[in-house]
Design goal:
22-stranded antiparallel β-barrel, globular, five-stranded mixed beta sheet
Length: 612
């Protein structure tokens, strides 16, 4: 692997959203993603999961998506080693149908075969907070937000004072991981940043060859904030990533020594202006702009992508809720073999939340997108949350959405593109309950159904994207339980997802939608002592259909277990250790063209974390 070492990024860049400035003041009971501003889940009509200990319990050998698998309705697929192509799935649908953000950046890669976020590049230890918003979020987030939105936040600017953290670990596959995060704030100025370097010899991603697939990934983020008055909040943030990944691709005998190098560079600006502020109401304007550049080089060629976005919204807060009116603009371009393709989308949206004295919240949203190629698409959402009694809420939602074809689906090389494709449209609903019993047990149950019309699919016979006319239907249920008593806690999730789609563009018969496990779940048992922590995590997938290998229509079911623990040596220093795949299970979460991608076997690591 090419050695690039640790690096420093200090860009005089754009401004953070208001969310970045207030995140340090939030707890597990506040969600930012749902309305682009902090809101309590009891007032939301959508279901959401907030994770605040992801970085503290991160396992270095596993990618961020692998560690989120089974939480908040998430299932995860990965093509072998960390850094290989991966997919974060929600609501029984592939990663094509959700949006993933990191510090406000939309990570969907325009240079890929589909515009999806590869979360296996994100440094798990740098993430201080994650929010999973389930169900269609089209009115606020536009195209592709059909199954939900996931929002990751790296090192945050503190409310006051200074913090810092350094870590380093070494483990199996000659894996070394080191990094640092920090933050500080004075009266008017604040900053934060994180740096992470991951280097591993890896393992062979497929069984057909025994060549190890090494990985080197370097990540950095930095943020600034400026609050000259109580009514003006500015900030600046940037992200950078470089990676070298050996890969085993579609043709393992050919690609056994394939190397992919990639880079992401992004800058973002925003500002918050409180225009009117009275005792019972306030009017605020929030605007932002960002640019994110993707570059990827591999055996088959060089690929570039660029995503530029700008927009803003007015939010009127009052005692009974809020009203929001906004606009956004996005230009997405990709370059393959010196050929550049691009598209523009302009959107206008509105959202309303009313909180009634009876413990009822009613929400509604509408959006109008104007696509430069496909014209106008309108989406909307209606929802209700009803508190039946204290700590017991019933939620219901109905929403529509759409997804425009990616540049590669339209113009892809080797004849894969299809210029006749048109956008997919969707409609879906969910219904469920969430609550707590005393202070020891929390629970949620959500059922959903989504219908996608004229889905875009890849034909493995013609090697071309096609429009599968008709309705693809997905329905499922998600259950989450968490119990705690003193030093002990246990959490259990179970996800059921099942979907059918027309077999092909020329065959109207139905088949099961592939790539998503019908049954999946996670069990996490934790003991938190005075100076030490022990945690065991079990994950299972069952009944995952796949079609690339015609001799094996279903991936093998699997159960894996991971262990991790830590012991606080001093006030500032903690030693950490973990064991991955304790029973050395032979399992896969994704398939290739006639083969399956392997996952790590029995492995472990030991490390040191210093906080100050």
């Amino acid at each position: 692997m090419r050695q690039t070492g640790l690096f420093l990024l200090l860009l005089a860049a754009p401004l953070n959203s208001f969310a970045d400035n207030v995140l340090d003041q939030l707890d597990d009971d506040i969600v930012i993603t749902a309305s682009r501003m902090p809101i309590s889940p009891s007032k939301m009509t959508s279901f959401a999961e907030v994770i605040t200990d992801l970085g503290d319990h991160a396992l270095p050998q596993l990618s961020l998506g692998q560690q989120m698998d089974g939480i908040g309705g998430v299932s995860f697929t990965n093509n072998g080693v960390r850094g290989a192509q991966s997919g974060l799935q929600l609501g029984g649908l592939s990663s094509t149908y959700n949006k993933v953000y990191l510090d406000g950046f939309n990570l969907a890669d325009p240079s890929g075969t589909q515009e999806v976020a590869n979360t296996s590049f994100i440094a798990p230890r740098s993430i201080q907070r994650a929010e999973i918003l389930n169900g269609s979020q089209g009115p606020l987030y536009g195209s592709s937000a059909i199954a939900g939105v996931v929002n990751f936040f790296s090192a945050q600017i503190p409310d006051q004072g200074f913090y810092g953290e350094s870590y380093a670990s070494f483990g199996s596959y000659n894996t070394f991981n080191a990094g640092q995060s920090f933050g500080a704030r004075s009266d008017m100025v604040g900053f934060a940043g994180s740096f992470d370097s991951y280097d591993s010899d890896g393992f062979s991603s497929i069984q057909e060859n025994n060549e190890d697939d090494g990985v080197e990934i370097n990540n950095a983020s930095i943020k600034f904030s400026l609050t000259p008055t109580s009514r003006i909040k500015l900030g600046a943030n940037a992200i950078y990533r470089e990676a070298d990944v050996d890969y085993d691709g579609t043709f393992p005998s050919v690609n056994s020594s394939g190397l992919q190098t990639s880079e992401i560079k992004g800058v973002r600006t925003s500002t918050e202006l409180v225009l009117v502020e009275e005792q019972d109401y306030a009017l605020t304007f929030i605007g932002e702009a960002q640019s994110l550049y993707f570059e990827r080089k591999e055996d088959f060629g060089d690929y570039d992508g660029d995503r530029k976005q700008a927009g803003g919204h007015l939010r009127f807060d009052y005692e009974q809720g809020f009203s929001l009116l906004g606009f956004d603009y996005e230009r997405v371009s990709s370059t393959e073999s010196s050929t550049k393709n691009s598209y523009d989308i302009r959107g206008f949206f509105a959202e309303q939340l009313l909180e009634l004295s009876t413990g009822t919240s009613i929400s509604g949203g509408i959006r109008r997108d104007d696509h430069a190629t496909y014209g106008t698409y309108a989406t909307y959402q209606l929802g209700m949350a009803q508190e039946i009694f204290e700590n017991f809420v019933v939620k219901a939602n109905y929403a529509t959405g759409f997804r425009a074809p990616s540049n590669y689906e339209l113009y892809g090389s080797f004849g894969a593109g299809n210029k006749n494709l048109k956008p997919e449209t969707s409609r879906g609903y969910d219904l469920g309950v969430a609550g707590k019993l005393a202070s020891h047990l929390s629970y949620s149950l959500r059922g959903y159904r989504t219908t996608i019309t004229d889905r875009i699919g890849y034909n493995n016979t013609s090697f071309k994207y096609q429009q599968i006319e008709g309705n693809s239907k997905v329905w499922g249920a998600e259950v989450a339980l968490k119990a705690s008593m003193g030093s002990y806690s246990i959490a259990q999730t179970y996800n059921y997802a099942y979907g059918t789609e027309p077999t092909s563009a020329t065959d109207s018969s139905s088949r099961v939608i592939a790539g998503v496990p019908r049954h999946s779940g996670k069990t996490t048992a934790t003991y938190q002592g005075q100076n030490f922590l022990l945690q065991a995590t079990g994950l299972f997938h069952a009944e995952t259909v796949q079609y690339a290998n015609t001799t094996k229509p279903q991936l093998d079911d699997f159960v894996t277990m991971n262990l991790n623990g830590s012991y606080q040596l001093t006030e500032h220093a903690t030693i950490e250790a973990s064991v991955i795949n304790l029973f050395d299970s032979d399992y896969v979460t994704a398939h290739g063209n006639g083969f399956e991608y392997q996952q790590p076997g029995l492995s472990g690591n030991i490390g040191l974390r210093i906080k100050f």
